């Protein structure tokens, strides 16, 4: 029988259980007593936070990471994002990936008119004296390395905070940073 979990990956943690390089890093296994063989489906970089699905079922990982499953992110960006920038995000932008230029697939994007109701991040973003910020929702079906961050930078609005809020039909909901809940099955 397989085990499946939803986790709010906090800022500052790697989306993995083992890290063999010399620097000390915070790993997922420090957050909960997961069964042996548990793996993260997809990743969030160390500076990103939000919804992560974990499972002992390797086949499920392939299903969730497919281009058929949407992943939605809320990005707090530097400056007041423009309609033009949002349209560029939706139509695909050129980013660097593995040393080459890559044009992202079209996606769904829109400006959030209110600050989303998210838990405070452990590390402060910055103060208001450095200028305004705004929030944008970006829903992609692909997941290149640091893709959403590269996309917002490509349109002139670098990401300050990035939170994954949805994977398919599964939403972050009321989970708090570091909280893991076991679920019966994964239906995306």
Features:
single chain; 188 residues; alpha+beta; 9-stranded mixed β-sheet; two-stranded antiparallel ribbon; 3 helices; 11 strands; 32% strand
Provide the fold topology.
Layout (H helix, E strand, L loop, with lengths): L3 E6 L29 E3 L7 E7 L2 H8 L5 E8 L4 H9 L2 E4 L2 E4 L4 E5 L20 E8 L6 H8 L4 E9 L2 E2 L8 E4 L5
Parallel strand pairs: 3-9
Antiparallel strand pairs: 1-3, 1-11, 2-3, 4-8, 4-9, 5-6, 7-8, 9-10
Give the overall average pLDDT: 93
Percent of residues in helices comes to 10-25%
The oligomeric state is single chain
Sheet/helix structural class = alpha+beta
Query: In percent terms, what proportion of residues is strand?
Result: 25-35%
**How do the SSEs run, as a string of H and E?**
EEEHEHEEEEHEEE
Q: In total, how many beta strands?
A: 11
Contiguous uncertain segments of 5+ residues: none
The Cα radius of gyration reads 17 Å
Q: Shape from CA axes?
A: globular
Main beta sheet, described? Answer: 9 strands, mixed
End-to-end Cα distance: 19 Å
Compute the number of helices.
3
Pfam families: PseudoU_synth_2
EC number: 5.4.99.-
Domain Pseudouridine synthase RsuA/RluA-like: 3-154
Family: Belongs to the pseudouridine synthase RsuA family.
